Prior knowledge:
39% of the residues lie in helices and 19% in strands. By secondary structure, the protein is an alpha+beta fold.
Amino acid sequence: MVIDWSQPDGDDEDSNSDKIPAAEYVRMSTEHQKYSADNQSEEIHRYAERRGYRIIERYADEGKSGLNIGGRKALQQLLSDVETGQAEYKALIVYDVSRWGRFQDVDEAASYELRCRRAGVAVHYCAEQFENDGSIGSSIIKTVKRAMAGEYSRELSVKVFKGQSHLIRLGYRQGGPAGFGLRRMLVDQEGNQKNELRLGEHKSITTDRVILVPGPTKEIELVREIYRRFVEDNLSERDIASWLNLQGISTDRGSEWTRGTVHQILINEKYIGNNVWGKTSCKLKGKLIENAPNDWVRSDNAFRAIVDKSVYEKAQAIIVSRSAKLSDEEMLASLKSVLDRKGILSGLIIDEVDDCPSSVAFRSRFGGLLRAYTLIGFQPDHDYSYLEINKKLRLLHSPIVGDIIYGLEQAGGTVDRDEETDLLTVNQEFSISICMMRCLSTKAGSSRWKLKFDTCLSPDITVAVRMNTGNDAVKDYYLLPRLDMRQAVLRLAEYNGLSFDAYRTNSLSGLFALAKRGNLRYAA
């Protein structure tokens, strides 16, 4: 070894001063994740040591989802430090692409990295097998990794939803308090009852399930008395709430009764034993949406009823009939009055007002609260526009199917249409399914389309009708043969490469030609 005595004695501090200052960012969704924040940090520090970086700042989002930047305060602070010039580091090291985020839009994922690079801070992924150096190869791999990270969350969301829906149909409870007069009972995988769960308690064994059972006799009798006073004595929800409060009786949450809490008992199907789930949903950290009744997941007669079904139905009839004598204009005027007083509208707010029809009445009269909101000019914070788009697409579906049948028949083919499924059988030779793809806009302004194949029908050809950005006209078509399709769900962008866009067409003349009948001598 040759010693250069001209150089001063080195120590750790001097050697560190020669290293490039860097920051680390770690994220984990839950405490039970495979790679904890500490494990990520350890790998990041090893990477920094090998590459000549010195970690001077740490940002950690622990227990935070990577689906969006909302709630991820550490990432928000990181971007703020970088863009305001407060960051004293020149590089940012992250464990892998998925720790940076599982954004559903790869462009959004790229935008946050771009903001760092523009501020002079390079981003490194220490566990990935590519160098994030801006080369074509790394850019392609990184884009694929981002798409894979987002797809993982989408697939997981679909699997979780299917699993929860299956359990609902089997009669198991999925979250939420039992409600007054009912209790949550823990059962094992054989269906044997174990013990009652108190408010706030959760099951600890994955194979255990939760069902609803009748609560104390006194509470059951009170629920039935609520229905009796409402149905037989014609008392209002407000009168019943006052009577309960005068008796010193609290709700299951320990609070006083209100018109709304009584109304919820009168309209909830769990009191007649029905297991209903999915009235609202919030998938992939998106906005909370109100689902149409046809989309609810349900299992009738799943639990032991504590209210007779005929009594329940009489209560629903009374609730709906209270607004039967009012004209549409009078109902909307009443709703507008509530909006002027409260400044906002929701089902619960409407149900708390004495001089206004119930939320159930508005749903029954106008086909949903959203429609009623629109008619009085109220725009809720949540995005319910998909409901209107779906209605629009349903109206367009039948004419499009009719046009396709007409085109096939004009070409000389015979078409048999299944009235229940709209599956078309052409010349008794091949089948066609027609699916509408509504256009979705990403935060970055890009257009996306999603198609779910009719796997149960297994058509020979799926005609995917891609709608324009306004979802009011056809943009183009994809003719997708079953033999070439290996996915249950297909997601499309504006341009999708030859692998998918080879199936794209602006007209259906090619499809109609398949139905054409030819002379055998001519064909030979």
